[in-house]
Amino acid sequence: MSGFDLDAVRAARREALGESFHFTFGGKDFAVLPAKEWPVEAVAAFSEGSLVDGVRGILADDPDGFFAEQPSMGDVEALLGAVSEWSGLGDLGN
Predict the structure, then answer these.
(1) Residue 37 lies in a domain
(2) Which terminus of the chain is more exposed, N or C, with fewer CB under 10 A?
(3) What total of structural domains would you count in the chain?
């Protein structure tokens, strides 16, 4: 069966987007997915005010490792502020 290949479109988009947002927390390295690759569920979580689910969804890998460091609200606000600036999406914390 031939038709529209969403997997190929996704792969091409990811290649074109390039780098993720990288940061260090608790001596560990983490990355945030490029904004166009954020799962719809993560975007919905932010709009519903669920910071934990939103952050968990946009981390490229090891969200459990991030939350194992027990981030404070100030930590999450600082991270989201930096990600907002990097992505150009505006305020993610509200």
Answers:
(1) yes
(2) N
(3) 1
